[in-house]
């Protein structure tokens, strides 16, 4: 169990690498892929987006835990995590560039799947160091800094693609280059504990795959934490998948691209105001569950605001409320998860399994959201479903017994 507190420089470098991951994830999902698909197939843009993001999320479901498991076995002199961060950044960047050159839905899907494979390998690398090196009493605060990068990544990406260039292909290239650049400070400037070769377990493909299963019966706290995260992230995926189209078709905003940017800035600012301060409070109190339950209710309230009020001021207010709740969630829930991992030697693999609860909803959300929007009440019904799923995820945290 780590006992030495990490420095601010270490936290900043890891946060920058994490920022690279989420910038490369969310900028295409929220902005570049919708714009590219609207150009390729305007009539079927919504369903095309669902197919592309769905297949990409399927790749993520397997790539993240597998990369984590291989990271746990890595005996490189550079450590277990840094080779995967650097290699994943390079592979993800190549995938983004290939995606930018495609002119068909299948081609875009293939490029995005490659990007997802690389970026999920990188994600496995940047997630594990908190459990590897940060003491329990510092984890929510550090997780607050790294967690903020989820929304900061989209903010930075949105700013870049709306102000620096006006071409989707150039936007992809810029995001790809920055993904690699932002990974460098952590991978080049900080060492990490090495896995001695004598401690390395045999690399057996069958055992590698079967080891991805974590028994809910033997590790119930891990299972409840996974299910809670899955539901809360499903609510988030349902609420954000069609945000650009929601602003266009329901709010009738003249400039929905800029609208997404404004909402993201409000959301991120609110999250930044709550993530680290509440993380510090959680660390000092030694309590996680009440904060997760409370923030799930706050996020559900924001979804209901979107369901009932379709004016631009109401949407902006909802973004602030949602950001405040999500800021608490990203800090405290990540700290909670690191405290229910089954074994120390499989941290990256187990965190990869947890990360399925982040990417899995991206697969399920299009299948749920498309029929709701098309046949079961449109965007208001979609956000009611979002609120219900989010609250359910918060309630399930109460089933965890090993964390207060």
Give the topology:
Blueprint: H1 8-40, H2 45-73, H3 82-100, H4 105-133, H5 139-163, H6 168-189, H7 205-210, H8 220-240, H9 243-249, H10 256-285, H11 289-308, H12 312-338, H13 347-375, H14 378-396
Protein name: MFS transporter
Membrane topology: Multi-pass membrane protein
Keywords: Membrane, Transmembrane, Transmembrane helix
- Which series of helices and strands comes N to C? HHHHHHHHHHHHHH
Count the E strands.
0
Regions with pLDDT < 50 over 5+ consecutive residues? Answer: none
Shape: globular
Discrete helix count: 14
Give the C-alpha Rg: 20 Å
What CATH architecture label applies? Answer: Up-down Bundle
CATH homologous superfamily descriptor: MFS general substrate transporter like domains
What does this structure look like?
With 404 residues, the chain is mainly alpha-helical. The protein has one domain (8-190, 206-399): Growth Hormone, Chain: A. It has helices at residues 8-40, 45-73, 82-100, 105-133, 139-163, 168-189, 205-210, 220-240, 243-249, 256-285, 289-308, 312-338, 347-375, 378-396. α1 packs parallel to α3, α1 (8-40) runs antiparallel to α6 and α13 runs antiparallel to α14 (378-396). The protein is globular. The two termini are 19 Å apart. The mean pLDDT is 90.
Gist of the model:
78% of the residues lie in helices and 0% in strands. The chain is built from 14 helices and no strands.
List its salient traits.
404 residues, Growth Hormone, Chain: A, transmembrane helix, Sugar_transporter_CS, MFS transporter, MFS_dom
């Amino acid at each position: 169990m780590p006992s030495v507190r990490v420095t601010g420089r270490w936290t900043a470098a890891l946060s920058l690498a994490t920022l690279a991951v989420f910038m490369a994830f969310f900028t295409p999902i929220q902005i570049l892929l919708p714009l590219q698909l609207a150009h390729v197939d305007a009539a079927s843009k919504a369903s095309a987006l669902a197919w592309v993001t769905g297949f990409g999320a399927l790749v993520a479901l397997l790539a993240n835990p597998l990369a984590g498991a291989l990271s746990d076995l890595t005996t490189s002199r550079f450590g277990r995590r840094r080779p995967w961060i650097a290699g994943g950044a390079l592979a993800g960047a190549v995938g983004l560039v290939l995606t930018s050159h495609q002119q068909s839905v299948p081609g875009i899907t293939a490029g995005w799947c490659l990007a997802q494979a690389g970026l999920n390998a990188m994600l496995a690398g940047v997630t594990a160091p908190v459990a590897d090196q940060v003491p329990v009493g510092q984890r929510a605060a550090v997780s607050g800094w790294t967690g903020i990068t989820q929304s900061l990544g989209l903010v930075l990406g949105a700013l870049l693609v709306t102000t620096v260039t006006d071409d989707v292909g150039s936007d992809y290239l810029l995001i790809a280059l920055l993904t690699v650049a932002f990974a460098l400070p952590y991978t080049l400037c900080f060492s990490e504990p090495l896995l001695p070769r004598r401690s390395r377990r045999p690399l057996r493909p069958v055992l590698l795959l079967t080891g991805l299963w974590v028994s809910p019966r033997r590790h119930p706290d891990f299972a409840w934490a996974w299910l809670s995260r899955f539901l809360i992230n499903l609510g988030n995926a349902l609420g954000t998948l069609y945000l650009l189209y929601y602003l266009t078709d329901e709010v009738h905003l003249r400039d929905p691209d800029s609208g997404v940017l404004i909402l993201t800035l409000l959301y991120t600012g609110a999250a930044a105001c709550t993530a680290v301060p509440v993380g510090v409070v959680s660390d000092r109190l030694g309590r996680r569950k009440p904060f997760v339950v409370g923030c799930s209710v706050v996020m559900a309230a924001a979804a209901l605001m979107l369901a009932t009020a379709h004016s631009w001021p109401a949407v902006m207010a909802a973004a602030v409320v949602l950001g405040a709740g999500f800021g608490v969630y990203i800090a405290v829930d990540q700290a909670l998860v690191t405290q229910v991992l089954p074994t120390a030697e499989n941290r990256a693999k187990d965190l990869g399994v947890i990360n399925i609860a982040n990417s899995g909803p991206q697969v399920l959300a299009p299948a749920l959201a498309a029929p709701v929007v098309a046949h079961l009440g449109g965007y208001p019904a979609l956000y009611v479903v979002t609120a219900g799923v989010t609250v359910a995820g918060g309630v399930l945290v109460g089933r965890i017994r090993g964390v207060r």
